[in-house]
Amino acid sequence: MISLFRCVVLLHAGSGWMFYFVVTVQTAINTGVSIGTILLAADCLEIMYTSLSPHGPLKLYHFIIIVAVALAFLSQLPSFHSLRHINFASLLLSLGYTILVSAACIGAGLSKDAPVKDYSLSSSKSDQTFNAFLSISILASVYGNGILPEIQATLAPPAAGKMMKALVLCYSVIAFAFYLPSITGYWAFGSHVQSNVLKSIMPDSGQALAPTWLLGLAVVFVLLQLLAIGLVYSQVAYEIMEKNSADATRGKFSRRNVVPRLLLRTLYLAFCAFMAAMLPFFGDIVGVVGAVGFIPLDFVLPVVMYNIALAPPRRSPLYLANTAIMVVFSGVGVIGAFASIRKLVLDAGQFKLFSNNVVD
């Protein structure tokens, strides 16, 4: 239903402020995802590098540059349609990574060298409260990944049937790919498990808690999958940037269209890479994206536009329920944004800009 009402937003608002609000929020979401993707992919490269050369000279920002250059090259695919095979490969890689990492966590938890499990929470009530809302924002980012299949499902009739099939598949994969490694990782390492669970399985000191071949294959899987995610989520920004720069009467690979496409896409990825290197706070970035992007776009805006477009009686249960959802999730979004930015500021105060470590 969300995608249908997002289309209602665009049709109802035309080129007014609501149209630009939706486009701005979705662009912010995609930019945040691109930054997080580059950061996590670089982190995986650094894991591989440090396991082979523990005292090597390369730093995190070197790997961020490598990932950004690779994405800049791959992003010259001119349209979202040309990414369909990469998108399918990303699905297979995601499932493979989930199985490998979850098996490694179970093995680590059962190992005689398993770390002491500590499931305690912060003793500060305020920290617990803010962390709870930060977690809600992160969950919103996780489940907000359904935006793409929702939009894609509305492109051809019958929209409702296609949308339901797309969402069932999407959320089935999300539940499997996110919850299985989260549960096994938390069971194996407790509350100190890192956002990139591979770092918990491969600690800085001591031996790895899983076979080398398994860890190497998992890193390769997630690295390739992250490149695919970066390509897919960047397409919205590319479409917006190239709306006025491209010439539809010329070929996709004509010099008139290739030059601005190469320049704009490279500059966009350079910006994302710079932000990833300057603020390597992966968990915080995900929280901010969820709070300021996914929560208003997926939980607040649809019910607002439902009330505007279909105008149910103001005292009807449906209108009141929609209003309650709007108020509750607006509050959750505001508090979540504050909690996410607070965590980002606290982490920034403990680490220098362009840190060599990704901060949870």
Which features does this protein show?
360 residues, mainly alpha, Amino acid/polyamine transporter I, 0% strand, globular, transmembrane
Task: Walk me through the structure.
- This protein is mainly alpha-helical and 360 residues long.
- It has a single domain (1-350), classed as Amino acid/polyamine transporter I (Up-down Bundle), CATH 1.20.1740.
- The protein contains 12 helices and no strands.
- Helix 11 (282-310) runs antiparallel to helix 12.
- The chain crosses the membrane at residues 60-77, 89-110, 130-148, 168-189, 209-233, 262-279, 285-306, 318-341.
- It is found in: Cell membrane.
- Keywords: Amino-acid transport, Membrane, Transmembrane, Transmembrane helix, Transport.
Task: Give me the CATH fold name.
Answer: Amino acid/polyamine transporter I
Summed over residues and divided by their number, the pLDDT gives a mean of: 77
Shape type: globular
CATH architecture field: Up-down Bundle
Low-confidence stretches: 1-14, 151-155
Give the H and E element order: HHHHHHHHHHHH
Quaternary structure: single chain
Summarize the structure.
Keywords: Amino-acid transport, Membrane, Transmembrane, Transmembrane helix, Transport. By secondary structure, this protein is mainly alpha-helical.
Spell out the blueprint of helices and strands.
Elements: H1 2-13, H2 17-52, H3 60-74, H4 84-110, H5 125-143, H6 147-153, H7 159-189, H8 197-201, H9 212-245, H10 255-278, H11 282-310, H12 317-350
Helix pairs in contact: 1-2, 1-6, 1-11, 2-3, 2-9, 2-10, 2-11, 3-10, 4-7, 4-9, 5-11, 5-12, 6-7, 9-10, 11-12
